[in-house]
Write a structure and sequence with these properties.
Elements (H helix, E strand, L loop, with lengths): L2 H24 L6 H27 L6 H27 L8 H26 L1
Helix pairs in contact: 1-2, 2-3, 3-4
């Protein structure tokens, strides 16, 4: 298991729960509903990719592939760029921050593609 990555995933999960609670309770009185919905999308995608990081950390036990490592780094970058930009946009109301979000989405997509490729390579090596 990739213990460092698993630890990072645990921290990301903790942060996602904290940020979700903050959105549900702390932002209600000071932020418009449309911006809270944007914040919630950031939390949702952070959760999805936190679970993906856990899967990669566990898969690291039997799959030794640089593609797997790259997938993890891309998911981390995606969380920072995608979710982070949505959090900042919702909190600060600065629309230009929304221009960063697609880069995070691209990191997510590329991370999933590399995860699939690493599993495919591993599968074919076992045959």
């Amino acid at each position: 298991m990739k213990k460092g990555l698993f630890m990072l995933a645990a921290i990301s999960g903790f942060m996602a729960v904290t940020l979700g609670a903050f959105a549900a309770h702390g932002l209600k009185t000071v932020t418009p509903p449309d911006l809270i919905a944007i914040f919630d999308i950031g939390v949702e995608y952070q959760f999805y990719h936190t679970f993906a990081l856990i899967a990669i950390a566990l898969a690291g036990q039997w799959v030794k592939s640089p593609l797997l490592d790259w997938a993890a780094w891309l998911f981390i970058a995606g969380i920072v760029l995608f979710s982070g930009s949505l959090y900042l946009y919702a909190l600060l109301g600065v629309k230009v921050l929304g221009m960063i979000t697609p880069f995070g989405g691209f990191c997510f997509l590329l991370g999933w593609a590399l995860l699939a490729a690493s599993m495919w390579r591993h599968r074919t090596e076992d045959l």
